[in-house]
Amino acid sequence: MKELRIAIIGCGMISHRHMTVINNLNKRGQNLKVVAAAEIDKEKLEEWGKQYGLAEENLYQDFREMLKRDDIDEVEVCVHNNLHTSVATAVMAAGFPCYSEKPMAASYADAKILYDAQKKYGQKLAVQISSIYNPQTRIAKEMVEKGKLGKVYHVRSVGHRRQGRPGYDMPFFSHDFVNPKIGVHGPLFDLGIYHLAQMLYVLGMPELESVYGMQSCDYWRNEKIDDAVGCHTPIEDLGVGLARFKGGISMDIYEDWAIHMDEIGSSFIAGSLGGLKFTDVDTTGGPLAVPEGGSIVGGGFLQKPRLEWFGVDEEGRLFDNKLDCAIDDITGMQELALNPEMQMYNDNQLQWYSYLRGDLTDETRIDSPYIAMQTAFLSEGVVLSSELGRSVTADEIKAMSKSISLREQETPFGTIKYDFDEYKG
Ligand SMILES: NC(=O)c1ccc[n+]([C@@H]2O[C@H](COP(=O)([O-])OP(=O)(O)OC[C@H]3O[C@@H](n4cnc5c(N)ncnc54)[C@H](O)[C@@H]3O)[C@@H](O)[C@H]2O)c1
C-alpha cells in the first residue's frame, strides 16, 4: 500500500487520539506516516515531537510554514472549535486535503464557508463524527430506509454528563472548551453534535423547517475554578430544542454537560411500526482509538453501541429485539468477516484515508462535511431561538447566521491573520 504522508495541526489532547488510530491502522497494514506537526505552544510541540519521534525540522510553531512543504498528502486539523474554519480553509487554500475535528464550526455560517471551500479549492474534506461510523448507525439507517419502522414521526437526540464540563469540572481537558471565544458553545456543539448528526443521518438528512430552543448556564460554578481556567464569561451547560422537519417529523433535543441525574434515557426514533433505542452512541472513536493495553485518550471506556428495536408484527404481536452493534475488534464482527471492506465504514480516519486513496468515492463515502454542516444548521437554530426567545425558521437561520471563526489569532510568535470568504447565506 502506498505511503500516505500526514501532517497534524494542533498537538493537544485529540491529536493523541489521531496518533493512536494511525498507530493501530499501521498494525493492520495501512502505510501511514506522520511527517510533520504544528503547534503554537513550543514546549508542547517539542514534547509531542519526542513522543512520536519527529525530528526538530519537522516541527513547526507556525503551521503556515509547514504548509509550504511539498511532501505532505493530507493535513489533520486538531485545533479548537472556533479555529476549525480558520485553519481548515487555510489548509485547503494551500492545496491540501483536510480532515478536521468536530464540531465543523461554532456557527452555521462558518460551517458553510468550510463546506464551500471544498469546491473553491478543489480539495477533499472530512469532519470527525465518530457516532456515524459504526454498525449502530448503519443498521438503524437501513431499517428506516427499508420502512421497518413505518412512518417516522418523532426522534429524540439526547446526551448528558453529570458535572462533566470539559476544561472546567474535568481539568485534564483543555480550558478552551469553556472559553467563549474559542470553544464558543456548550454541550450542544460538543457531545451534542454526535447525537444530532447520528439522528439526521439515520433519517436521510430531512429538511429542517423550524426550531424552538434554549441554552442556559445555571449549573454550579466556583470562583476558584473560574480563575484557574481563566474563564469568567461562562458558556452554556445546557442546550434544549424542539425541531420540526419536512415530512412531519419532530425532534426533541436535550444536551447537558452537568445535570444532577444518573440516567436521562437515550436517543430514539419513533415510527408507526416500530421504535429504535440507541444505547452507548460512539462519541470516543471506537476500538481503533484505544491504545494497545491503554485507555481512551481523555478517559472513559470504549462504548459498545447497541440498538433496541420495539415493533409489532403482521399479526399485531409486539416484539422487542436487542441488536448488538459493537465492533469488538476491527475484524470482530461477523459483518466484517463476510465483507472486510466494511471496516472502511467503522472508523472516521480509516474512511478518510480510504477516500484519499481512491478506495471510496464521493458516492460511496459518508459525506461527513454535509452531515456536519446540517448539524451546525440545526444547532444554530437552537442558538438563535434561545437568543430571540421565539422559534426560528430555516430561512431565518440562513439569513441570521454569522461567521465568528477567528480571523486573527494571537500566538507566542505574533498574530496569525486568517483570510477566508465572507458568509453569503
Ligand atoms: N479532547 C477530546 O476528547 C476531544 C474529543 C473529540 C473532539 N475534540 C475536538 O478537538 C478539538 C481540539 O480539542 P483538544 O481537546 O485536543 O484541545 P487542546 O486545547 O488540547 O488542543 C488544541 C491545540 O491546538 C493548538 N493550537 C491552537 N491554535 C493553533 C494554531 N494556529 N496552530 C497550531 N496549533 C494551534 C493549541 O495550542 C492546543 O495545543 C476541539 O474542537 C474538540 O471539540 C476533542
Rg, Cα atoms, Å: 21 Å
CATH topology of the largest domain: Dihydrodipicolinate Reductase, domain 2
The CATH fourth-level homologous superfamily of the largest domain: Dihydrodipicolinate Reductase, domain 2
Largest sheet: 9 strands, mixed
Fold and architecture overview:
- With 425 residues, the protein is of the alpha/beta class.
- It has 2 domains: 4-130 and 409-417, 3-Layer(aba) Sandwich (Rossmann fold); 131-339 and 366-371, 2-Layer Sandwich (Dihydrodipicolinate Reductase, domain 2).
- Helices cover 30% and strands 22% of the residues.
- It has helices at residues 13-27, 42-52, 63-66, 84-93, 108-121, 135-145, 192-202, 223-229, 334-338, 348-357, 368-388, 394-400, and strands spanning 4-9, 32-38, 59-60, 74-77, 98-100, 125-127, 152-160, 208-216, 238-245, 249-256, 268-271, 274-279, 306-312, 318-324, 392-393, 408-411, 414-417.
- It has a 9-stranded mixed beta sheet with strand order 14-13-12-11-7-10-9-8-15.
- Helix 7 crosses helix 11 (368-388).
- The protein is globular.
- The site of nicotinamide-adenine-dinucleotide has 26 residues, from helix 1.
- Nicotinamide-adenine-dinucleotide (NAD) is lined by residues 9-14, 38-41, 44, 63, 78-81, 83, 87, 101-102, 173-174, 176, 298, 409, 416.
